[in-house]
Amino acid sequence: MMATAEVVLRGAVTAEGQLVLDQRLDLPPGRVEVILRPIPEAAAEAHSMFETLRRIWAAQDARGFAGGRSLEEAVADVRALREEWGRREGRLEEHRERCRARRKAATSGTKET
């Protein structure tokens, strides 16, 4: 039996009692012994933002979260937003043209209908 060096990782225990590690293990598949030691709250809060994000991603993976929208859905949403803003810009341009015509009519002394 080949002995592997001890690996020390940090993680968190979820409300459901699952252990979520802060990073992926680089060990071959097989049984391991896990010893948990609580970390004082101050030390636990000293994690970087990226470590916190990794913990969140690991918890999402553990519960089978597949992510938000697919690429196709995101592209369709962006396309719809662009079309909406294009229509809005068109309405604004029509309004600007009416204002220009009114200013022109006011300076020339004629009344616009």
Give me a quick take on this structure:
This protein has helices at 41-44, 49-62, 71-108; strands at residues 11-13, 19-21.
Describe this structure in words.
- It contains three helices and two strands.
- It has helices at 41-44, 49-62, 71-108; strands at residues 11-13, 19-21.
- The mean pLDDT is 84.
- The chain is rod-shaped and about 90 Å long.
- Strand 1 and strand 2 form a beta hairpin.
- With 113 residues, it is mainly alpha-helical.
- The chain has two domains: 11-62, no CATH class; 68-113, no CATH class.
Structural class by secondary-structure content: mainly alpha
Counting DSSP H or I runs of 4 or more residues, the number of helices is: 3
Strand order of the largest sheet: 1-2
Please state roughly what percent of the residues sit in beta strands, choosing from under 5%, 5-15%, 15-25%, 25-35%, 35-45% or over 45%.
Answer: 5-15%
Mean pLDDT: 84
Number of structurally distinct domains: 2
Head-to-tail CA distance between termini: 95 Å
The radius of gyration computed from the alpha-carbon positions, rounded to a whole number of angstroms, is 30 Å
Helix content: 40-55%
